[in-house]
């Protein structure tokens, strides 16, 4: 043991980042709207743009909060990150020589 | 720019790891069965166990290759990683004080 692959690090970073924000207030294992907004702005500023109240953040929050309970659980967070990662991969591939 | 958050690193590691194996042979943008097996054993040995031909690896390969085309694309890979990350998170939470 001891050695950690990039893939294992990626999984650990996803888990660590979610709980860093979900633990701040209310239910420790879900993100409320404030916690989600903070996570998106602080951790994904590069991808979503750095404006403090931009459309991308609002759109993500509304999409994830479709049932209006105001909470995002870990599975919903992972679905979001998966969709973002696929979008990123497509973006990079567009710049590859065919 | 320049500063990269843990979440952005995680996305980059997922993309980098997939292409490290998908580029080895055949279609550069999909994993064939051999490439997938190599990725799982080399990058996820800690989670799947370290035996060279264990059941976990075979099960993942069969699940992902449901359409029998023998290729796993990036979106399918991300769905697998998402499911594994959610399972890991559940596992860690079971050991948290309630």
UniProtKB/TrEMBL annotation, chains A, B:
Q: Name one GO cellular component term.
A: cytoplasm
User: Which SUPFAM superfamilies would you find in this protein's record?
Assistant: EF-hand
Q: Annotated Gene Ontology MF terms?
A: calcium ion binding; calcium-dependent protein binding; transition metal ion binding
Keywords associated with the record: Calcium, Metal-binding, Repeat
Task: Outline the extent of the EF-hand domain.
Answer: 52-87
> Would you indicate the residue range of the signal peptide?
none
Q: Which SMART domains match?
A: EFh, S_100
Q: Which domain of life is it from?
A: Eukaryota
The record, for Pfam families, names: S_100
Indicate what this protein is called per its UniProt record: Protein S100
């Amino acid at each position: 043991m001891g050695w950690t692959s990039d893939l294992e690090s990626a999984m650990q970073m996803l888990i660590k980042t979610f709980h860093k924000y979900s633990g701040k207030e209310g239910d420790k294992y879900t993100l409320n709207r404030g916690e989600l907004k903070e996570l998106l702005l602080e951790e994904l500023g590069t991808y979503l743009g750095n404006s403090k109240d931009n459309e991308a953040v609002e759109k993500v929050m509304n999409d994830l909060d479709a049932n209006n309970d105001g909470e995002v659980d870990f599975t919903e967070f992972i679905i979001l990150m998966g969709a973002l990662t696929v979008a990123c991969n497509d973006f990079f591939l567009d710049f590859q020589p065919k």
